[in-house]
Amino acid sequence: NAGVTQTPKFQVLKTGQSMTLQCAQDMNHEYMSWYRQDPGMGLRLIHYSVGAGITDQGEVPNGYNVSRSTTEDFPLRLLSAAPSQTSVYFCASSYQDGEQFFGPGTRLTVL
Amino acid sequence: EDKVVQSPLSLVVHEGDTVTLNCSYEVTNFRSLLWYKQEKKAPTFLFMLTSSGIEKKSGRLSSILDKKELFSILNITATQTGDSAIYLCAVRGSNYKVTFGKGTLLTVNP
Question: Is B30 helix (H, G, I), strand (E, B) or coil?
Fold first, then answer.
């Protein structure tokens, strides 16, 4: 099992550019989520999904879109990058009531 | 909105000390509380608690949940420098949504 994979590991964008952070899991987990982590702020939930075709907003969804067309994949799209989106992004997956497994993270810098 | 508050936000101790980390929460339709340890990379799972009063233990780490008072504690005994990390508390509520606190930064000095 590869577990939870994320690509890319690092990314630098210019303000206004768009991009997609990829997340995939091979554990057949129903629940997937995206968090951002900034210094001193813990993990803040951006979007989450309880199954294919179902997504919902977390506490900081503005500027991000998600879709869940398959159980395995949960990409996060930045529509028009802003410096405030500079952060480390983690994807996680779990069975609905199980422990969350995290991907290795993507470090994003927006200039 | 679900809320998780951890205290203290940071803590510095000497090797061999015992530490207690606190986590209080407000959540709609509580399902479980989870503790994670984060060093330089992604968080790693420590414990999941669903029932009040039952202690979960793994080596020098233990945790207990009080569902009536809406809090949990994480204890680390005989701390080592390798315990230095951010400790994150999270709760799972309605729709299986998992909300994290800001974490406690623990520094263990030799």
Answer: coil
Strand-pair category, B98-100 with B85-92: antiparallel
Can you tell me the distance from the alpha carbon of B60 to that of A111, in angstroms, rounded to the nearest whole number? 44
Report the candidate in B35, B14, B79, B60 with the shortest Cα–Cα distance to residue A42.
B35
Q: Do A101 and B103 touch (CB under 8 A)?
A: no
User: If contacts are CB pairs under 8 Å, which of residues 1-30 in chain A contact chain B?
Assistant: none
Q: Do A41 and B42 touch (CB under 8 A)?
A: no
Residue-wise pLDDT for A42-78, tens only, equals 899 999 999 999 999 999 999 999 999 999 999 999 9
Q: Could you read off the pLDDT of A12-31 as tens digits, one per residue? A: 999 999 999 999 999 999 99
B-chain CB neighbours of A48 within 8 Å are: 96-98
Strands A10-13, A106-110: pairing is parallel
Best CA proximity match to A105, nearest among A38, A48, A15, A29: A38
Q: Output the DSSP codes for A7-45.
A: E-SEEEE-TT--EEEEEEESS--SEEEEEEE-TTS-EEE
d(CA B83, CA B57): 15
B22 beta partners: B7, B73
